[in-house]
Write a structure and sequence with these properties.
The complex is a heterohexamer, with 3 copies of chain A and 3 copies of chain B.
Chain A (H helix, E strand, L loop, with lengths): L26 E5 L7 E7 L2 E12 L12 E8 L14 H14 L11 E11 L4 H15 L9 E8 L2 E4 L3 H6 L2 E8 L4 E11 L1 H40 L1
Parallel strand pairs in A: 4-5
Antiparallel strand pairs in A: 1-2, 2-3, 3-5, 6-7, 6-8, 8-9
Chain B lengths: L1 E2 L8 H12 L15 E5 L7 E7 L2 E12 L10 E8 L14 H16 L9 E3 L3 E13 L4 H15 L1 E8 L2 E10 L7 E8 L2 E4 L3 H6 L2 E7 L5 E7 L4 E2 H19 L8
Parallel strand pairs in B: 5-7
Antiparallel strand pairs in B: 2-3, 3-4, 4-7, 6-7, 8-9, 10-11, 10-12, 12-13
Helix pairs in contact in B: 2-3
Classes of the chains: A alpha+beta, B alpha+beta.
C-alpha cells in the first residue's frame, strides 16, 4: 500500500465512515414494493441499494426441466450497468455467475421445495448501487421477498460479511474497506437451524482471527435478522391497516 | 429474426367489458382516453451514477442511470460525443421477461428512446468532444425496467431525459492524447426536453398511456415525440395493426398537447 | 454542416440526382426468380438492390412454437456484408433486429394468417446493395414475394419514405439525402384498407410539414403499388406464355 | 461438435431411377457424368462493392461481394495483406437453412474456397502490404448463397475468383502510420485462376457438379482445385463415405480437364 | 441464472451402505474420513507450454497448462502482472459434461482456484510488470479436467500451483513500448504454496477428498485453502446444504493439518 | 522464403529431426486410460500429444434428435489452450469446427451405426500438445478409443499426412515442416476396405507428385495400422494378465 493512503481505522478506533468495528451500516428494508412480482423487497445498506423480486411457485417451461419430487430454484444476481464506478456491461460477468450459484445454494436449505414438485421458484436480485456487501444485502433482501411471496420457509436467511482492515476485524465492509482491506468473509446464517448456508473468504486470516470473525458474523447476522422480522411485521401492519381503512 | 409473439389474451369477460367502456369514452381504471396515469419522476436516486431518475406511470416503474466516461468518438462523427442507449427488460419486472441478451423488444425500446434524445438534439453532442477524432465523452443511458404495466416507451423516455438533466459531467484535462479527470463536475449540456406520447388503438378508440391490459387488447400503438417547440422529432408505430391517416392526425394532435403537460413534470427542465 | 458541402437541392429545385421533390427513383421489380423459395422477388430502387424470398405456409418446428388459431409470421431483414460502404458484419445489428420486427408488423395486417393454424410463413429480406430506403423497398418486394408464394393477402403493402432536405419535402430519399437531410419518415401503406402499417420518423418536422409529408407518402406508395401490380401481371403473363409455349 | 445430420432421403422411386440412369452413364437431368450444368458468371453486379460476381450453376445461385479495407496485418505475416473468406447459407436459399451464426457447413464452405484462393497464390498478398507490420489491405470475400441446388463449393469458388478479378483496390497514401485513400483505384493483383471441380460418388459412379438431389444420394464428394498450370492446390473430401485410390486418380484426372473448361469462362482471366 | 441441477441419485442400496459405513468412520473405498486418495503429481508434462502439471486424485485426473504472454496490465493495477484462470469441464471427463461455453460449475472452479493463488500471493504479480501501465506478463492458468471422480477443486488447485512452480518466464527486452523475447527464460516468481482441502458433509460426517459418489450424497462441501504459514486465504462453501459453526471449526482444523501433508507432495516447493 | 531460414532437408537427404523422407516420428499409443469414458486412447506422435474418449452407444437427449435407423455420431476435435505456441482461446475456432466435421465423416464409414438406432456415439479428441499432424494422430487414437469402447467397427481407421518440403515428398510432417513446406495432405485410410475416408490437401502438387504422395500415405497408414493393432493387443494382454493375477 502507498504511504499517502487514507487510514481505514482512525486513531480513535473508528472506521472511515465513523463506525465502530462491529457496527452495521444504516439499513433500510422495504417489503412488497413491486406490483407484478409474487414477492419483492428493497434494501439500502449504507450506499448499497438492491431490489429483489420473487416469482413462484409457478409451472416450469419446458416441462422436462422440472423435478418430480421438488421445486427447482432459479437465482440471478445481477448488477445494473450504472451501479458501479465504471459502467458494467449488462451481460453477466463470471463473478455474477458464481454469485448466482452460491446465493441459490444459500437458499436451497430454507425453502420447502418438496411442497411444489414440477414447479420453479425464481429469485431475481438486482444491484442498483454497489458499495460493498451486495451479495449479503441481496440475500437479506431476497429472504424478505421469498417471505412476501408466501413461499414456505424454514426460516429467513440473514447475511453479513466480516473482514479485516489494518489488522482489525470489522463487520459489514463498505466498498473501500473491501478493496483496501486484508480479508473479506461473507456469511449467510439461518437462525432457526443455527447453521451457515453461505461462507466464502478471500484475503488472509489466522485461525484465531477466523474464529473471532465467525463469531462476529453470527452476531451481525442476528442483528440483521431482527431487522428482517421487523420489516415483515411492518408490512403486515400496513397491509392490515390498508384493509381496515377500506372496510 | 422477428417472430409473431405468443401472447396470453385477456379473459373474454374483461375484454368485452373494456370495449364497452371504451365505446363510452371510459377506461377500466376510470381514466379518460387522453388521461395519463399518475406520473411520478424522482431524479438523482442513484447517487454514485453521474445521473439518474426513476419514473412511475401507475404501476409501471423504470429506473434510468447515466454513466459518463471518455473514449474515442465514432469515426464518422469525429467532432461529437457519443450517446449510447441500452434497455434491460428485467425478469423482476414481469413474468414474461426471461434473463438473457436483449431481444427485439428491448432493442426497439432502446432505439425509440435513443431517437427521441438524438433527433431532438436534446444532448448537445458537439460540446462533448474533448480531442477531435481522438477523445470524446461517452454518455451511457441505461434503462432498467423494474415493473411492467404497459407504456414502457414513455416511462423510459421520461426517465432518460430526466436522468440526463440530472447528470453531471466529470471535467477532464487533456494530457497528450489522454483525458485526466480533474475531480470537478459541470452540467451535461441538455438543450431540449423531448417528450414522447404513446397512443394505443383498441377497437376504434385511441387512448394514451396504455396499461399492459390495454396493450394486450391494442392492435397497434404509435409513439410520437415532440420537442419543446412542438416539432415532431420521432415516431414509431408498433404492433401488428394499422392506423388510418385520420387516426394518425388525431394522434399527433394528442401527442402535441399531452407533451406540454408532461414536460412540465420533468425535473430540471427550465423550458 | 460544413460550407463546402454540396447542396442537396439545386437552384432549379431539383435534387442531386436530378429528380423533382416528389419523384421516385427508377424502380425495377422482378417476381419469382429464386427456384427453391415458395415465392420471391427482386427490386432495384435507384442503387438499392434487394432480394426477398418467402417460404410457407409450412409446419412449425418445434411444434410447441405454433399457434392454434393462426400462422406465425417470421421476418428477417438482413444486409449483406458487401452492401454498405464499410463492410458490415454478417451478425444481425440492433438496427436489423428492430427493422425485422417492424417489417413483420407491417405485414401482419394483410396476411390471412388465420387460414393456417400451427403453420409459419417466413419472409427473408436480403439487402444486396444499400443506397437508402432499403426497409421500404424491402417491404415493397416482400409483398410481391408473398403474392408469388400464393399466400392469401388482403392487399399488397406498398412502401416509401418521405423526408426533408434543406427545408424541402422530398420522396424516396437516397442514402445521401437520408444522411444529410433534416428528416426521414418511412411509411408502409395498404391501399385496399387505406391504412398505414408502418410509420417511423426521425429528424424534425412541424405539424404542417408532417401533414404534407404523409400526403406525399400516400401518393408515392400508390405509384409504387401500381408498379407492384404491373410486376405481378407481367409474371403471370410470362408464366402463361411459358405454359402455352410448352403446349 | 459435429453431429450426423438428419437428411430427408429422396423418394424410393426417384433414387431407384437415378441409380438405373447412372448405370447407363446418364443423369436425371440429361447430363453426362462429366458435364457441368450451364455455368453463368456475371461480374460487377454490386457496383458499390470493390468487386462482385454472381454465378449460376443450373438453379444454384451464388453472389460474392469483395470489400477492401485497410487494417493491421496478422502478427505472423507482417509483410502480407489479409484475405478473409466468409460464407452465409442464407435462409432464402433453401428451407433447410435457418438464420443464425455460421454452422459447420458454411464454415467448411468458406474454408474450402479460402484454401483454393490462398494455396494457388491467386491473390498476391505480398503486394497488399502498405506499412510492414502496421498497415495492410484487408480483402473480404463474402459468399452469399441465394439458391441452393447442389455444388455450392464450385459455384462459390467461381464467384469468389471472378469477384477478385473484378475488384479494384482503393489507392492509399501513407501519412505517419495511417493510410488515407487518394480516391484513385487500381486492380487487385490476381496472379492465378484456381478452379475447383467437385465430383460426387453415387453407387459406383463418379459425376461432376452434383445437383442437390444427387448430393442427397451421394456417399461422398471430393473437391479438387487446380491452378492455371494444372497443379493441384487444394483437395477436400466431404461426406460420410469413402473413395478408393482408383477413384481418387480418376477424380483428379476429371478435375484437371474440367478445370480448363471452366477457367475459360471466368471473366477477366487473361490466362 | 443459476438453476437447481438435475442429479442422478445413487442407488438406494449404495447410499444406505455408504451411510452405514460413515457411521463407523469408514468409507466405501476403504479410506478413513480424513484420508486422501493417492495424490500423484507430475510436472512438466506439456513441454511446449511454459509450465504444466498433471494431478491424479484416485480416478480424478486434471491437467493444467501455463502459458505466459505479454500484454497490457489491468487499468486498476498498472504496476502488476496479470493472472487469468480458466477451467474446462471437458466432455471426455464425464458423461454429464457437454461441450459448450463455461457453465457455472466451471466458472466457480476457476474462480476458487484463482482466489487460492491470488489471495495467498503465491505468484508475485508485482514483479511481473514490464512497463508500468503499458506492458505486463500475462499468466494463463488453464485447467483441463480429463476424468471426473470428485473433488475437482483440490485436484485443480494442486495442478495449478504445481504448474506455476514448474513454469518458466520468457525474458523480454523493452524496445520503446514493446517487449521483445530475448530467448532466455527465468523462473516464475512463486512465493507461497497454497493448498486447498475440500471437506464434504454426508449425513453428520465430515470427510476429505470426496469421490463423485460421495459428492452425490453430500449436502454441502467446504473448500479451505491455507498458506505455507497456516493462514486461511480462501474459503468456498458450495452445495445446497449447511454447516454448523462446530463443523466449520472442525473443517478448518482438518484443512490446516491435511494441507501440510499435501504441500510436501507439490513438486518444486522448497517450503 | 528468407535466405537465413534453416534448410528442412539436409544435404544428406535427412529431415531437420533426422528422419528419412518416408519415416514416421516415434509413436506411442496407450489404450483405456480414462476411467469414466466407455473407451479411451492416448497417442504421442513426435511432440504431438492427444487424448481421446469415446462414449456410447447411449441414449440421445433430447430424443427427437435421434435417428430411427441408426446411431448418430458426434465428434469434437478440440485444442487445449496450452497446446500451441500462442495460447489458443478455448472457444472452438473455425478450423476446429471444420476438422470436427471431416473427422466425423472419416469414421461414419467404419461404425456399424445401423446396430444402434436412436442412440449416439461420441468421439472427443483433445489435443494437449500440438506439433503438426494432430488431425491424423487424433483419428488414429480415436480408432483405438472406439475399439476400446467395444463399438462394432468394419476396421480401424489409420491416418497420416504426406507433404512436400523443398521439393521432396515426406510423410508425417511436424509443425515446422507443415508451416514452411510446400504442401500438406492428410489422409485417413481403412485397410479392410482399402478406401480413403479423409483426404484434404493444401499447397501445390503436380499430378506425378500427387500420385506418389498418395502411395506414400497408404504405406505410412499401413505402418500406423500395425501399431494400432499392437496397442490393442497389448491392452488385452494386460487386461488378461490383470484378471489372471486376481484369480
Amino acid at each position: 500500500m502507498e504511504e499517502s493512503r487514507q487510514k481505514l481505522i482512525g486513531e480513535n478506533g473508528l472506521r472511515i465512515d465513523g463506525r465502530k468495528p462491529d457496527e452495521l451500516r444504516p439499513i433500510r428494508m422495504e417489503v412488497g414494493l413491486l406490483a407484478n412480482a409474487d414477492g419483492s423487497a428493497y434494501i439500502e445498506q449504507g450506499k448499497s441499494k438492491i431490489i429483489v423480486a420473487v416469482y413462484g411457485p409457478r409451472e416450469v417451461h419446458p416441462k422436462h426441466l422440472g423435478l418430480s419430487d421438488r421445486a427447482i430454484v432459479r437465482c440471478r444476481y445481477h448488477m445494473a450497468p450504472f451501479s458501479t464506478q465504471e459502467r458494467k456491461s449488462p451481460a453477466p460477468s463470471r463473478r455474477e455467475i458464481e454469485l448466482s450459484k452460491i446465493i441459490r445454494e444459500a437458499f436451497e436449505p430454507v425453502i420447502f421445495s418438496e411442497y411444489y414438485p414440477r414447479s420453479m421458484i425464481d429469485i431475481f436480485i438486482e444491484v442498483l448501487q454497489s458499495d460493498g456487501g451486495t451479495r449479503c444485502a441481496g440475500i437479506t433482501a431476497a429472504s424478505l421477498a421469498l417471505a412476501d411471496a408466501g413461499i414456505p420457509l424454514r426460516d429467513l436467511v440473514a447475511s453479513c460479511a466480516v473482514g479485516k482492515v489494518e489488522g482489525c476485524l470489522i463487520v459489514d465492509l463498505n466498498d473501500e474497506e473491501d478493496k483496501e482491506g486484508e480479508a473479506d468473509m461473507p456469511v449467510a446464517y439461518i437462525p432457526a437451524l443455527d447453521t451457515v448456508s453461505l461462507l466464502q473468504m478471500d484475503g488472509q486470516l489466522t485461525e484465531e482471527e477466523f474464529v473471532e470473525a465467525l463469531k462476529m458474523a453470527k452476531e451481525a447476522c442476528m442483528r440483521i435478522y431482527q431487522m428482517q422480522k421487523q420489516a415483515l411485521k411492518q408490512k403486515y401492519v400496513e397491509a392490515k391497516e390498508a384493509v381496515e381503512e377500506q372496510e | 429474426m422477428s417472430i409473431t409473439p405468443q401472447t396470453e389474451p385477456l379473459t373474454k369477460i374483461k375484454s368485452k367489458q373494456m370495449i364497452e367502456f371504451l365505446k363510452l369514452g371510459k377506461r377500466l381504471d376510470g381514466r379518460s382516453l387522453t388521461e395519463y396515469r399518475d406520473v411520478k419522476i424522482e431524479a438523482g436516486v442513484i447517487g454514485k451514477a453521474e445521473g439518474s431518475a426513476q419514473v412511475s406511470l401507475g404501476n409501471t416503474r423504470v429506473l434510468v442511470g447515466i454513466k459518463v466516461e471518455t473514449g474515442p468518438p465514432y469515426s464518422d462523427t469525429p467532432n461529437m460525443g457519443v450517446l449510447t442507449v441500452n434497455a434491460e427488460l428485467l425478469p423482476l419486472a414481469h413474468e414474461i421477461f426471461e434473463p438473457g441478451p436483449p431481444d427485439e423488444n428491448s432493442i426497439e425500446l432502446a432505439r425509440v428512446v435513443d431517437r427521441s434524445l438524438r433527433e431532438s438534439k436534446a444532448l448537445d453532442l458537439e460540446s462533448l468532444i474533448i480531442i477531435p477524432g481522438k477523445l470524446a465523452y461517452v454518455v451511457f443511458v441505461d434503462i432498467y425496467i423494474l415493473n411492467h404495466d404497459g407504456n414502457l416507451f414513455d416511462a423510459s423516455e421520461y426517465a432518460a431525459i430526466s436522468g440526463l438533466m440530472n447528470a453531471k459531467l466529470p471535467v477532464v484535462e487533456v494530457e497528450g492524447e489522454e483525458g485526466k479527470p480533474t475531480g470537478d463536475f459541470k452540467e451535461l449540456p441538455v438543450r431540449d426536453c423531448p417528450v414522447s406520447i404513446t397512443i394505443a388503438k383498441i377497437d376504434e378508440a385511441l387512448l394514451v398511456d396504455p396499461t399492459l391490459e390495454e396493450e394486450t387488447m391494442a392492435t397497434a400503438k404509435i409513439t410520437i415525440t415532440t420537442t419543446k417547440d412542438g416539432k415532431i422529432c420521432a415516431i414509431q408505430k408498433s404492433g401488428g395493426g394499422t392506423f388510418t391517416f385520420e387516426e394518425i392526425m388525431e394522434a399527433q394532435k394528442i401527442a402535441r398537447s399531452k407533451a406540454a403537460e408532461v414536460r412540465s413534470l420533468i425535473p430540471g427542465w427550465r423550458g
